[in-house]
Specification:
Layout lengths: L2 E4 L1 H11 L12 H11 L2 E2 L9 H9 L6 H8 L3 E5 L3 E5 L7 H10 L5 H17 L23 H11 L4 E4 L5 E4 L1 H4 L11 H16 L2 E2 H5 L8 H13 L2 E6 L2 E9 L13 E3 L10 H8 L20 E6 L2 E11 L4 E9 L6 H17 L4 E4 L5 H10 L1
Parallel strand pairs: 1-8, 13-14
Antiparallel strand pairs: 2-4, 3-4, 5-6, 7-9, 8-9, 10-11, 11-12, 12-13
Amino acid sequence: MKRIALTASQARKIILHAAGLARRAQLGKGREAVYKLIDHLGFIQIDTNYIVERAHHHAIASRIPDYQPEWLNELQADERIFEFLTYASGYMPMDDFRFSLPVKAAFLARRKPMTSAEINLMNKVLDRISRDGPLMAKDFENDRVEASSGWWDWRPSKVALERLYMDGSLMVTRNAAFHKVYDLPVNLLPGDIDVTMPAPDEFARQVIRRALRALGIAYVKDICFRARYVQGHMVKTELEKMVAEGEVLSVEIVGLKTAQLYMLAGYRNKTINLTGDAFILSPFDVLNVHRHRLRDFFNFDYQVECFVPAARRKYGYFSLPVLVGDMFVARMDAKADRKSRVLIILNLHVEPVKLTQPMIAKVTEAIQAFAVFNQCGAITVQKTNHKALGKAIKKTI
């Protein structure tokens, strides 16, 4: 298998272009650009953490400067996007709906045998939504017998709703408070949508194209990650065929020993220019989901420390990677105090890199834009290891 040799710099450019981060507004501005971004990436991950604006809004705003959060609901109401799972919950283009069907079938196949009471409850839940229209979990009676033990300890009706959602019997939208609203697919799908189950090889090829379009350059495990709930062997088989056909290229990075890497053939002779813009990214951004890629291609060792015990955190509860050009230059642990409308930077840690004055200016501008995006009119910096950057930010306050 002949491999295409790329320098590390070329690889980073391809990865950033695929992620929509080669420059600000790479895919344009306005509501239509939001759809173009979701269609390009194939998936925008949803996360409920609200320390700063939620991950799905954050990921879009990083790329579309004039983004308005209500545009997501409008696109879903217009039947152009829908919410479901790949490796996590996220928004996907409606044209990909049929490729969610193998995932739903996989959930149904792996479901443990249910009691007659559980089956009856699911039927009652489905009948009620069919009769009364879209409902939330709180609209069902509180059928818990014992007190909740914490996260994921759902009461029976919530379990029934989620089972029906996972197997495709129900779909979801979100209300203003970001709560799930369950409804029948017939009420949320366009009348002309294709709902035929794709063959296994067709599904595998869709996974490969979607993954490589969003990631640029990826390992087999990264590509298979989008099919984590479905058997991954077919993805590997079809990947080899696509390499033989020339649609996908085998790649190696000069001076870097890695497992086999792949990219779409369209990147072979593509000229990519990075503008050197600064981006403050969500921990759940498509660029950051696969931490090993950050280490291998960007020499950036990153972890979301909200999942780490407080005593072991180095940078903060929810530190956000800060990218300038093709280099991660800092991590910003911040929270939005929505009552006082202040973006509180708890810790702005600059990596061991040289920040030039133009870079400092760009990072400062990105932080100002991030504050506005979080509906904050002021910024405070509690801690930073870079005096010049700290000063530049304080001058703008």
